[in-house]
């Protein structure tokens, strides 16, 4: 099937003189996750992961993806002609290097200019100029061969009330305009869906588990134009947006709007997020101020109302997860269980909680060797049967009106090996040490990552991903610009200085292909500690509340300080959650949060 699709694409390429065609994982907004309409890379390669780029030539097909997906991609590409290129590995060319190598003089390079960002599109354009090749960006060749392509999502939107956001839409727009004034920008083009949703205090359902709305935004000092499918707006919401000074325009009109921006105007836009077609349509006499959107930093720093709501969301989520863990631990081996039935049970517990809207991503319930695939997703065909032995890794979360959660727990379902116990305890040490960090203001995730990775590096172990990511407020579960990782990955844009109010996950792990995976994940809020002659010290507050499986720990491998950190954490978990549990669940939680 995949090879046949590739042949169909090559026929379209040949008709147009295209010798290389690029298919990224993207929509018109450079979203990390995309709706079904935009899953062109999945269609042409068969790889279902959330990140990857396909490059098709007349005689080769390649897929580039990162370390989270190496195992999954290798399995899914096995029966096709598509070759896996492991990003970041030694002697593996980048997408740009591959194209540079394979684009012949007077060849043709093609891509849909709406799904490639301006920066990458410009680099590809320069490549074609160097090779005297042609550039084709006006057609979606995948769309031409995708007969049963799903429709573009047009789900109704809703307005998130100020009791949840802590700030009005009018106030947020005013802040953006102040930033524009300081930067001498006349127009700000905003195309990233999470930024638009945050700024306008709107939410939708146009991407599964990501409550955003397909839209573009253009702001000047006197107008704010929202380009959106009118079908998603009720009359009441239209009226409300107009009262906030927002003009409603058709979704596709963004392209004609940018063409009409006057000469000598300065346009602020992040060319890493704005698509190539929009960038290309700007008048050549317009000055482009290519810098990060001001909303990125604004939404990352949660205000006091958001933070209080988030703590409440994590109590609700912690109750749901603890009820699930109780059920799992007390029923394993007694009733039939699979990865899917476990995942479904957890989802049902979340749906019972106050303010719940949706899962924040597809739950990863991965038993034994499946846990080694960081973004594993069980299917009815591949689901593993859970047995009273080994590890079950569950990475999950929820969207609530009070905020977004992301938690991972690895649980022993019965006897585990000495090696599994050692690795579980080392991952726990890594998690605790990072959460307990105290540091001077000015540090970012590169400064602190060693606190987590250090215990694993001592054993010659590592994990092929970052240690943590920012989390949005009823938005993207992966949110820039804060994160933890040991080396800079430019496209991740997660190297910002930690500011008070930023929320970041703490999720070290061990992943042994063919054996098991272990991850322990909590969310941390950055807070101020004392200020003295050395400067402003910062610390973290853990806001994820759920037991860490004591059945899998070797206490002998923990230092006295680490035992105290774990005991203090479990004491907090019991205090937060026990009022919402049944008597039996309380007794169970008391045992699973006991001091060691």
Overall description:
By secondary structure, the chain is α+β, with helices and mostly antiparallel strands. It folds into 3 domains: 2-145, 3-Layer(aba) Sandwich (Creatine Amidinohydrolase, Chain A, domain 1); 158-299, Creatinase/prolidase N-terminal domain (Creatine Amidinohydrolase, Chain A, domain 1, 3-Layer(aba) Sandwich); 301-592, Creatine Amidinohydrolase. A 6-stranded mixed sheet has the order 4-3-2-1-5-6, with helices on both faces. A 6-stranded mixed sheet has the order 12-11-10-8-13-14. β25 and β26 form a beta hairpin. It is globular and about 70 Å long. The N and C termini lie far apart (55 Å). 48% of the residues are buried.
